[in-house]
Amino acid sequence: MLHFHTRIFNGKLVARLLGVMLLVMAGFMVFPAILSFCYNDGALHGFLQSIATMIILGVFFRNIVGRSASYEFHEKESFWITGVVWIVVPIVCALPYWHVGVLPHFIDAVFESFSGFTSTGSTIIRHLDRVPKSVLVWRSLTQWIGGMGFIMLAIAFFRKLKVGTLHLYSAEFSGTIQQKIHPRISTTVSRMWYVYVVFTVLMFVVLMLLGNDFVDSVCLSFSTISTGGFSPRPDSITSFSEYTQLAVTVFMFLAGTNISLLYYLLLCRPRMIWKSEEFRTYLFVILVASVLLTLMLFGQGVDVGKSAEYSLFQVVSTISTSGYYISMPQGWMKVIPLFLFMLMFFGACSGSTGGGIKMARIMILFKYVRNQFVIMLHPRAVAPVKIDGKVIKMDYINKIFAFLFMYFIFMVSGAFVLMCCGFGLADSMAVVSANIANIGPVIDTMGASWCYADFPLAAKVTIIVEMLMGRLEIFAIIAIFSPSYWRR
């Protein structure tokens, strides 16, 4: 007689991990609180209130709800942990904006928080020059944390997660092929964090040497390495020196690269980087797009040097999904926003902090379509899709098609909601596309004229959903709301 064991959903572990993440976020918040005390910018009381609230909630979920939790979990718990943490933590971490008074409406504070943690860069703050310096640092710090992700942080902190760590790792990077640095997931994640921190510190040092002040250097380092795009200044990067803009361009390019390849860069193994077909494609697309944009601007009478400088910066910012912008040069044509809009869908490399569809998916789909033409001409031909010499299974290609279908469904649905709120079709598509790709600034003027504070409530909530879906790549959120998933 067969006996079937029914496994109980490990909800206590979900609550415990949520509590720990809230406590960790409270620990991160100490840094801007110290800065507020040093600069005496009037935000200290708001930060202390937020820290106290997060500690209370963290202890409640960790020690009461998640008490005596088992550290074994499987696929269902991994999606729940990913979904719950990515929804609850940004909401709670919106408290500083609210308590300090930067954003008096809580939904606006939640919008800014989600924009930060999803490394999108859309801002709802009208006057950045009036915001306390410590709050500016907190904005950029949320992007730095969200760039790697809460789940990567949880794996790094929880050495007890021995059973099921692969499920948790896969839930954070659902739908993309990841290159592991080490056979053990925990070791891979630790090395990824090491690379992340090293490049952040390196950029901070470079910016300080270029004459930027401490707060600007910290904010730009956090937001650039995470491809977030929050700037401490209202005009994004425009008012910074040309050398600073060049440094930001270089680090945006690096941030859009697979973190595993950056690890090999630190080990001085450039051959491992060049072996990556995705990296070569990423570099090729950037160079070609920059040349085309330079020719467009030069044809309108813009100086060739300024054209090249602007083009390289804007193309890297768009493809890496950083979302920084510099002021538009004279001779701006209406076709250029459309050109940048198309680049938005490429996205950065898989395994990077960038958003978008991802370069690897574009490559696989291109090769798949090309192979179908080959098979039409030669029916007996065998034409598998290969990346880096490895055959891509059809199951994974089907997942890409499913992802693209859901991606565009959310784009169209979000645009429809914005149109119901009174926006035009072009503006609605631009806003939704920029946010689901986690770029942020609208491609129409690269953020120079749009203020999300003017959007109605329904539009703000819609954009929050788009940002979250873009960051988690849709599958993780849909899974926890799917009845068929829970009937398995």
**Order of SSEs:** HHHHHHHHHHHHHHHHHEEHHHHH
Flag low-confidence runs: 1-5, 444-448
Compute the CA-based radius of gyration: 22 Å
| Strand numbers in spatial order across the main sheet | 1-2
Fraction of residues in H or I helices: 55-70%
Q: Mean pLDDT, rounded to whole units?
A: 84
Distance separating the two termini: 22 Å
How would you name the oligomeric state of the polypeptide chains in this document? single chain
Number of strands: 2
How much of the sequence is in beta strands? Answer: under 5%
Total helical segments: 22
| SSE-based structural type | mainly alpha
**Describe the biggest sheet?**
2 strands, antiparallel
What overall geometry do the principal axes of the alpha carbons give?
globular
Structure description:
With 488 residues, this protein is mostly helical. It has a domain at 275-344. It is built from 22 helices and two strands. It has helices at residues 11-39, 44-65, 75-92, 95-100, 106-117, 133-148, 150-157, 165-172, 185-209, 214-225, 242-255, 259-266, 270-274, 277-299, 304-319, 335-344, 359-377, 394-420, 425-436, 457-472, 475-480, 483-486, and strands at residues 386-387, 390-391. The chain has a two-stranded antiparallel sheet with strand order 1-2. The radius of gyration is 22 Å and the shape is globular. The model is unreliable at 1-5 and 444-448 (pLDDT under 50).
